[in-house]
Design brief:
Layout lengths: L17 H17 E7 L10 E6 L6 H9 L4 E6 H4 L2 H9 L3 E3 L2 H4 L1 E2 L3 E3 L9 E5 L3 H4 L5 E3 L6 E9 L2 E4 L6 H7 L8 E3 L5 H12 L3 E4 L17 H12 L6 E9 L7 E7 L3 E2 L2 H9 L1 H20 L8 H13 L9 H18 L3 H20 L13 H28 L1 H20 L11 H29 L8 H7 L3 H42 L1 H29 L8 H4 L3 E5 L1 H29 L30 H8 L3 H14 L21 H13 L4
Parallel strand pairs: 1-14, 2-12, 2-13, 3-4, 3-12
Antiparallel strand pairs: 1-16, 5-11, 6-7, 7-10, 8-9, 8-11, 9-10, 13-14, 13-15
């Protein structure tokens, strides 16, 4: 992992940052191990001196999000952390070591009120709340808030008349609130005491006046929605208040976007994106000083500016289906320059979202939306991914050879990874079970989470930090006991040499061995998972033949051509600097942070496997192309583009065929595939693509499906 360089020219010389730096280095390495790759974009925009406020969204990964910012900010950043989290033993300890600033949140102080409440007359007395079995005089005081379930509504209490009656300071006008309050049985409620944030604001102003960096998540809490939650005004109050108190402060606001591919999965990928720094306008500072409505309007305007800055570095769609649709369109887009980094792909997705929101009502865009949805349905039907489609454009002989080659490598890597997988199986099982339980508990306690995936990665890391050292220690102790108390008949030289070692030395060697086995399991297991995912397309090509796989590839090619043509036509209207030949330069500067030791070790085996595959492909190319007997044959020129007459001319195998295919057990396949593969010699004629069949084929679609089923089931008879 790349070492993080700190800029500390503004740090007070008398303060010791050693504890902060040590814990920061520890957590950045732990989170760096959890992810396979973390890419950053436009980190050069971060000011290297002076006070900076990082405004980070979306808050999709609870306590992992701050660490990813620490990995790439290149300055010491101190986060505003919920006081409820700071009161926890484990998390609070690390939060204090990282100099977090506690923030008391109202939702953390909310308590359930006794009984139920309702509005008896919402027309004549909309402020008078009546209680059923309540104890208002004991539990409620003026200034507190009454909060309804599910965030339906809340209001401040103006006065308390009795145990069963109180008066609100403002009417609850939300439809959801009125629906709950007008029920005959009433509704449950919570009571939130007033919170004084003066200490928190003073701590923030002090850090900024000393030229330090503050990190804040303006959404107020973590969530797993596909778009940002409404931003809280705290960030604007801090920025305007600090500048009003110190006009020469020079505070910069840096919008920071966090984008995860699979935030809860081990060894997934993430991208952190830094936007253009935002200055604090002097006009808004002056209006902030005036107080009252002018102060409120200044905060609202600056909050809107920050929100616009965050939209430039985040992905925001109304729902998950729209996000998947746009991501599929981005993958199908073919710019002139094909090599884009992961961070540039995220930026391209962001531009696709803007283009889709702008032109989604156009007939051409609606047509592409339907075709992409149909294409995604076909991918789900076959159980493959978009990037695997082109790998299926081969005949059965080549697919059989590549299948056997990859299975061989899978067995080799699986054997090496198996010991580490076995010793770490308790950790994998316990982290999965506990993290899912925590997610269910978080979902039940939240009104904004969808599936509570934002807490899973945090709990996986915390549990693993406890279980892994404990488990390795147990293994080491067991090994020491077994060696020193081995039966008399075990007189092997290795056992005797180990028994001569001291218990401490043997314990340390056993601990190191467990760590090494886990490392090899991570290296080889990661590659084995990739191979398993790549086998499915080859398996389908072997079973259903290249007729259907070629049609799927043609569908993808036609769709990619149409998307590329439309994007190249509409792109300059949104982005004047748009250019298909310089798209990578337009998407900003990027770099990546990898788990270098792991990836470097895995790359060697990956290159060996790929070199063998390349030799197989060249052999098949020579055998099927008599006019080019050498391995250095030039590529065939691409065929001229021809638009298909019908966008839904793809007839997949029948569901019965796919059901038979998916129900085949691995042992059944391995027992029958050997004979089938032996008959598929390289000299056999490759399958003719369906696109080369005569246009006036007399066979019906049903007959074609039946033949496809027979061809597929031939391998299992």
């Amino acid at each position: 992992m790349e070492e993080t360089r700190f800029s500390s020219s503004n740090d007070p010389p008398a303060e010791n940052f050693m504890v902060y730096d040590l814990f920061r280095a520890f957590w950045t390495r732990v989170v760096g191990l959890f992810f396979r790759e973390i890419a950053e974009r436009n980190a050069h925009l971060i000011p290297q001196t002076g006070p900076v406020m990082f405004v980070v969204a979306p808050h999709h990964n609870q306590f992992v999000d701050p660490v990813i910012l620490l990995m790439h900010a290149r300055r010491r950043v101190y986060f505003l952390t919920a006081a409820a989290s700071m009161r926890r033993k484990f998390i609070g300890f690390y939060g204090r070591c990282l100099r977090g600033i506690p923030v008391e949140r109202q939702q953390d102080l909310a308590k359930r009120g006794s009984g139920r409440i309702q509005l008896e007359d919402r027309v004549e007395a909309p402020l008078v709340v009546t209680g059923i079995g309540t104890r208002f005089l004991e539990e409620v005081e003026p200034g507190m808030k009454v909060v309804l379930p599910g965030g339906a509504g809340q209001a401040r209490v103006a006065s308390v008349e009795s145990d069963t009656q109180l008066t609100l300071a403002a009417e609850m006008r939300e439809l959801a609130a009125l629906e709950l309050l007008t029920k005959a049985e009433g509704t449950e409620f919570k009571i939130v005491p007033p919170v004084n944030q003066d200490d928190m604001y003073h701590a923030v102003y002090d850090r900024l006046n000393r030229g330090e960096c503050i990190g804040i998540f303006p959404e107020g809490g973590s969530h797993d929605r596909t778009q940002m939650l409404p931003l809280k005004a705290g960030a604007t109050i801090m920025a305007l208040g600090a500048t009003a108190a110190n006009p020469g402060l020079g505070l910069k606001i840096v919008p920071t976007g966090l984008n995860y591919f699979h935030p809860s999965k081990f060894r997934s990928r993430a991208v952190i994106d830094f936007g253009e720094p935002i200055d604090v306008p002097a006009e808004l500072v002056e209006r902030y000083r005036q107080g009252g409505d002018a102060k409120r309007q200044a905060c609202d305007e600056f909050l809107q500016t920050i929100a616009e800055g965050l939209k430039q570095v985040t992905l925001n769609t109304p729902d998950l289906e729209t996000l998947r649709l746009i991501q599929a369109g981005r993958r199908l887009y073919r710019p002139t320059q094909h090599t884009l980094t992961m961070a540039q792909q995220v930026e391209l997705t962001r531009r696709f979202i803007k283009g889709y929101n702008t032109y989604k009502d156009m007939p051409e865009v609606s047509d592409l939306r339907d075709r992409i949805a149909h294409y995604n349905a076909q991918l789900r039907y076959y159980g493959i991914r978009d990037h695997q489609v082109d790998s299926m454009r081969i005949g059965r002989p080549q697919a059989g050879a590549l299948f056997a080659w990859r299975v061989l490598w899978l067995l080799l890597m699986g054997l090496v990874a198996l010991p580490g997988l076995v010793i770490n199986m308790p950790v994998l099982v316990i982290t999965a079970v506990v993290s899912k339980r925590k997610a269910r508990a978080a979902l039940a306690a939240s009104s904004v989470k969808v599936r509570a995936r934002d807490v899973i990665a945090t709990w996986k890391i915390l549990i693993a930090l406890v279980l892994v050292p404990l488990l390795y220690s147990v293994y080491a102790v067991l090994l020491v006991v077994c060696i020193h108390h081995a039966p008399a008949w075990t007189n092997a030289d290795t056992v005797l040499r180990l028994a001569s070692m001291s218990s401490v030395s043997l314990y340390l060697w056993a601990w190191a061995l467990a760590a090494f086995m886990s490392y090899t399991a991570l290296v080889f297991g990661e590659q084995a998972v990739d191979i398993i995912r790549s086998i499915r397309p080859l398996f389908l090509t072997l079973v259903v033949g290249s007729e259907h796989t070629e049609l799927l590839a043609q569908m993808r090619s036609s769709l990619a051509d149409d998307i590329t043509e439309l994007v190249n036509e509409l792109g300059p209207q949104i982005y004047p600097e748009f250019s298909t030949t310089r798209i990578a330069d337009q998407l900003g500067q990027t770099s990546s942070t990898h788990s270098n030791a792991i990836n470097m070790s895995a790359d060697a085996f990956h290159r060996s496997m790929r070199s063998g595959e390349q030799a197989l492909r060249q052999r098949f190319a020579r055998s099927t192309s008599p006019s080019c007997p050498t391995p250095d044959c030039p590529d065939e020129p691409p065929a001229p583009r021809q638009r298909r007459a019908s966008k839904y001319a793809f007839n997949p195998p029948t569901p019965r065929t796919m059901e038979s295919l998916n129900n085949i057990s691995p042992m059944e396949f391995l027992s029958t595939a050997t004979g089938a593969l032996s008959s598929l010699l390289p000299s056999s004629t490759p399958d003719t693509p369906a696109s080369e069949e005569p246009a006036n084929d007399a066979k019906s679609a049903h007959q074609q499906d039946a033949e496809s089923a027979n061809k597929g089931l031939f391998f299992f008879t």
